[in-house]
Amino acid sequence: MWIEHIVHVLVQVITRLVCMDQGRVLAEGAPEEVLNDAAVIDAYLGSKARTAHALGA
To answer: Is 36 within a domain?
Structure first.
């Protein structure tokens, strides 16, 4: 297990990612899938960021 908050470094060396918020698992799986998960984006960036992300902004 590796706990890291510098995500761009982390995703270069892992094959599986678990994202948690306040002790609850939000998403787990391949890094790309987790980083694109709506619950993860909402928790860490807010719902406006999810809308922008979906639009490719």
So the answer is: yes
1 domain residue, yes or no: no
Domain holding 48, by residue range, is 7-54
* pTM above threshold 0.90: no
Query: DSSP per residue over 10-56, as a string?
Result: HTTT-S-EEEEETTEEEEEESHHHHHT-HHHHHHHH-HHHHHHHHTT
Residue (of 24, 26, 22, 31) closest to 2 by Cα position: 31
The string of pLDDT tens digits covering residues 14-45 is 999 999 999 999 999 999 999 999 999 888 88
